[in-house]
Amino acid sequence: SRRTPRTGPPGKRGTTERTHGPLPAVPQERESEPRNPETAGQDWIMSGRILVVDDEQGLREALAEKLRYAGYTVETADSAESALACLSTVDPNVILTDLRMPGLSGLELTERIRADRPQTDVVVMTGHEDMQSAVGAMKAGAVDYLVKPVRLEEVRVLVERVLREQRLDQRAPALRDENDPRPAPGPDEIVGRDPR
Question: Model's pTM, two decimal places?
Fold first, then answer.
């Protein structure tokens, strides 16, 4: 019997082709680093610097670990005196401090921080029996307080809120300047409303 002649260009059999030389390397997709779900989509917040001040080592370390896991840069101090000594190197955005400590109290620390570093926010921690001191700390300039025993997730959420408000406060003057082309009032101009 006669074989049916094969059609098509020479050098090819069926549908397979023989290639010469090594096969090109297939590019491998680079695995992205795992992201912490607590801060996903909020990269700007991860630049926050937190100083935790508490004479109780266990709580101090637990708070630091939780906040570091959330993406913050965290330093710790076991007293108000130690906190004041490291301010220039740490330059914290937020200070989380206990109220009752040997030596300088958290209330005194709050007063000094607000006087010398008004850009730094202070959050105080206190017990149920010491709520009057928490009220005093708020009057001294603390932005908020936590009641012991504190929940670590509650601390993280509060720190995130304080940092977000800081960012909004920093952006507000620029936004006002963009939206209002009028020059700022001079020192002799009267600003206010008629109380009548």
Answer: 0.67
